[in-house]
């Protein structure tokens, strides 16, 4: 009886993973075909736009950090002179 149970579990696990693999492959293929037929989804377009906005924000923040680092590491007299020139 123990051998039968082991074999049955093996068949269930192997069969289940095989069915899962086939189902996953079919769904990926359908997704790819739909993408080729209809183009990118709205969600992908939104993510692309959001990525561009975030990249721009990060660049802006990096520039601001560079200015703050320069101010923090420059001598006080030089910083005061630059502030006076800006007025």
Fold and architecture overview:
It is a single chain. It contains 3 helices and no strands. It is mostly helical and 87 residues long. The longest helix has 37 residues, at 2-38. The protein is elongated, with a radius of gyration of 30 Å. The termini are far apart. The model has no long low-confidence stretch (mean pLDDT 82).
* Quaternary organisation: single chain
How many distinct helices?
3
Range of strand content: under 5%
Rounded Rg? 30 Å
What proportion of the residues is helical, as a percent range? Answer: over 70%
Q: Which H/E pattern describes the elements?
A: HHH
Alpha-carbon distance between the two ends: 92 Å
Spans with pLDDT under 50 lasting ≥5 residues?
none
- Based on secondary structure, the structural category is mainly alpha
Largest sheet: none
Mean pLDDT: 82
Overall outline: elongated
* Number of extended strands: 0
Topology of helices and strands:
Elements: H1 2-38, H2 42-73, H3 76-86
List keywords for this structure.
87 residues; mainly alpha; 92% helix; 0% strand
Question: Could you write a compact summary of the structure shown?
Answer:
This protein is mainly alpha-helical. The chain contains 3 helices and no strands.
